[in-house]
């Protein structure tokens, strides 16, 4: 029996903070409905106190979406919490996500405070949020760099105050996967009430390790992942939803599952990329243009013999129409023959050999060979 991992999508909050990615309320509602269809468990709809537009977006998402929990972000500030509660009034399942910095860097240089005062503010914020909603998530910002004993104390205190979820963000994308595993394991061993709350992973990708760190956190006991479509987010981005969902699906033997309908991943990626005017890097795992494209002769030959030689996921599984064989000067005869067959041409070996020599000359010159080039070649 697999254990269910809750997928908390923050495309519309952490993702939307990226310069140039801002969406209108109407666009956000479209994305939220698609996230619901994709099967996410929680949608972080915005930061209601940040602007009247964000407040309205949270309200409209609460009205338009019924299945997932709708979450609003706040600082550990009473006014923020009141405004978020007000925006979330329309939600069937509202959640307030409140929190404060937990590393000494943040405590000293951002809050000009002490660990003791931070702990008091954290507990007070959770208790205050509980007056409005049952489901309160606490985030310990920059927990990746926090003193571990202090983090354990803070986690225990906010769970004691009623937090249903404790989010342990690696805000600066600092940790390595083994460190993440050890730190989360430490908390499971040292926080007496930890089983009363869900532990959540929220990783940033500054070292390109957000997905690896998220998976390490799950192996250590976390049961919620905070992710964005295409991994968009501050600086190098957040953990990418599609990567975590597919890693858990491909490695079912680990014993975890999500509610994500993987066939919707590629259409969802395209929608977010188009709406946010943020292109997806071609070699992006799962949803990049080249994720199912084969271009070297050895790979193409192997792929044409059996797709599983070079694909661990079928394109259909993630909603990509089909794999692609790209013809370049690195392609072999098998790929050329395959493409010609699709265009309705059959060649005997000798003729194919001759054509292949001319194909290579053309490919060296034109880099990529398209069907119109092949038509010219066949003459
Ligand atoms: O990265 C972070 O710490 C955050 C929190 C506000 C949850 O986005
Ligand atoms: Zn973040």
Automatic annotation (TrEMBL):
<feature type="domain" description="Pyruvate carboxyltransferase">
    <location>
        <begin position="5"/>
        <end position="266"/>
    </location>
</feature>
<keyword id="KW-0808">Transferase</keyword>
<keyword id="KW-0100">Branched-chain amino acid biosynthesis</keyword>
<keyword id="KW-0432">Leucine biosynthesis</keyword>
<dbReference type="InterPro" id="IPR054691">
    <property type="entry name" value="LeuA/HCS_post-cat"/>
</dbReference>
<dbReference type="GO" id="GO:0009098">
    <property type="term" value="P:L-leucine biosynthetic process"/>
</dbReference>
<keyword id="KW-0464">Manganese</keyword>
<dbReference type="InterPro" id="IPR013785">
    <property type="entry name" value="Aldolase_TIM"/>
</dbReference>
<dbReference type="InterPro" id="IPR002034">
    <property type="entry name" value="AIPM/Hcit_synth_CS"/>
</dbReference>
<dbReference type="Pfam" id="PF22617">
    <property type="entry name" value="HCS_D2"/>
</dbReference>
<keyword id="KW-0028">Amino-acid biosynthesis</keyword>
<comment type="pathway">
    <text>Amino-acid biosynthesis; L-leucine biosynthesis; L-leucine from 3-methyl-2-oxobutanoate: step 1/4.</text>
</comment>
<dbReference type="InterPro" id="IPR000891">
    <property type="entry name" value="PYR_CT"/>
</dbReference>
<protein>
    <recommendedName>
        <fullName>2-isopropylmalate synthase</fullName>
        <ecNumber>2.3.3.13</ecNumber>
    </recommendedName>
</protein>
<dbReference type="GO" id="GO:0003852">
    <property type="term" value="F:2-isopropylmalate synthase activity"/>
</dbReference>
<dbReference type="Pfam" id="PF00682">
    <property type="entry name" value="HMGL-like"/>
</dbReference>
<comment type="similarity">
    <text>Belongs to the alpha-IPM synthase/homocitrate synthase family. LeuA type 1 subfamily.</text>
</comment>
<dbReference type="InterPro" id="IPR050073">
    <property type="entry name" value="2-IPM_HCS-like"/>
</dbReference>
């Amino acid at each position: 029996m697999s254990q269910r991992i809750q997928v908390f999508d923050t495309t519309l909050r952490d993702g939307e903070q990226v310069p140039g990615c801002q969406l209108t309320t109407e666009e956000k509602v479209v994305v939220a409905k698609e996230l619901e269809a994709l099967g996410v468990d929680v949608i972080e709809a915005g930061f209601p106190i940040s602007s009247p537009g964000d407040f309205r977006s949270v309200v409209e998402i609460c009205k338009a979406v019924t299945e997932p929990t709708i979450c609003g972000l706040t600082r550990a500030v009473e006014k923020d919490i009141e405004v978020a509660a007000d925006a979330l009034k329309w939600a069937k399942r509202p959640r307030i996500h409140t929190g404060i910095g937990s590393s000494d860097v943040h405590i000293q240089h951002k809050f000009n405070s002490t660990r003791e005062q931070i702990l008091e503010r954290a507990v007070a914020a959770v208790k205050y949020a509980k007056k409005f909603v049952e489901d309160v998530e606490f985030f310990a910002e920059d927990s990746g760099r926090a003193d571990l004993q202090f983090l354990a104390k803070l986690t225990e205190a906010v769970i004691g105050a009623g937090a249903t979820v404790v989010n342990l963000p690696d805000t600066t994308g600092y940790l390595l996967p083994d460190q993440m595993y050890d730190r989360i394991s430490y908390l499971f061993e040292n926080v007496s009430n930890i089983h009363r709350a869900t532990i959540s992973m929220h990783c940033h990708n500054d070292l390109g390790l957000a997905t690896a760190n998220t998976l390490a956190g799950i192996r250590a006991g976390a049961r919620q992942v905070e992710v964005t479509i295409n991994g968009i987010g501050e600086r190098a981005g957040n953990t990418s939803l599609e990567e975590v969902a597919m890693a858990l699906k491909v490695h079912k033997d680990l014993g975890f599952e999500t509610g994500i309908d993987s066939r919707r991943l590629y259409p969802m990626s395209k929608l977010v990329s188009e709406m946010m005017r943020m292109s997806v890097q071609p070699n992006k795992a799962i949803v990049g243009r080249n994720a199912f494209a084969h271009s070297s002769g050895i790979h193409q030959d192997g792929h044409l013999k059996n797709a599983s030689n070079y694909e661990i996921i079928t394109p259909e599984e993630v909603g990509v129409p089909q794999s692609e064989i790209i013809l370049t000067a690195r392609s072999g005869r098998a790929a050329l023959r395959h493409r010609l067959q699709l265009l309705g041409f059959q060649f005997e070996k000798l003729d194919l050999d001759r054509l292949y020599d001319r194909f290579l000359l053309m490919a060296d010159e034109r880099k990529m060979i398209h069907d119109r080039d092949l038509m010219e070649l066949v003459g």
